[in-house]
Amino acid sequence: MTTAWPYPHIVAHRGGGSLAPENTLAAIDVGARHGHKMIEFDVKLAQDGQIFLLHDDTLDRTSDGWGVAGELPWDKLVLLDAGNWYNSAYKGERLPLLLEVAERCQQHGMMANIEIKPTTGTDDETGRVVALAARLLWQGQTEPLLSSFSVEALEAAQRTVPDLPRGLLLDEWDDNWQALTERLGCVSLHINHKELTAERVAALKAAGLRILVYTVNQPARARLLLNWGVDCICTDRIDLIGPDFPNE
Ligand code: G3P
Ligand code: MG
To answer: Is 55 designated active site?
Structure first.
């Protein structure tokens, strides 16, 4: 099990936070332009097993496609526009493959938090395929941190590439956090910051877990969370909460 924690204290959510169309190469470039050293992004499988970036199950919100993304093969997904919904300046931006994102992160010298976001019913396969790809694509680099709300996907990742670091995602506090993270061999808990108190942070740290919180967009809140002992702030306001944000 990997025990080192090489990750910085600020992470750009979905690549470029709210300053670019989420989960695109353009977003990663915006994150890099703001000096960020680590990004979070969401991945799932196309019908033919290609790994690409998208947050929602469906294409409707963040592309000019519609319907369940995972029901389409990559040769259809690649034709879609994933930038114009955000701003016409980004027209022509595509959904990116994990392969392209790995290359872009490495060009920028950025670390990655790969959130496994399986299409409903594909949790095991997605966890397995993403873990294998992550191992291969980040060879010789700082290992990407895998995370998921899906226990099944994390179990599959654990089985497939046991020594890749994993974090359990929780949108709500779960009193069963310790048993779950131990069973999944997690190095970190990734949690909605609204669920945390100083006492909960202390309990997680006492159990040896690192803590990533999302999505923190107010500097005062970020400062408080870091003071409590939170390790990573995942933010949409990559301009206000930048890589030089004080960590004391
Ligand atoms: O990984 C942190 C955060 O991205 C989890 O929530 O819905 O933004 O993917 P969501
Ligand atoms: Mg995410």
So the answer is: yes
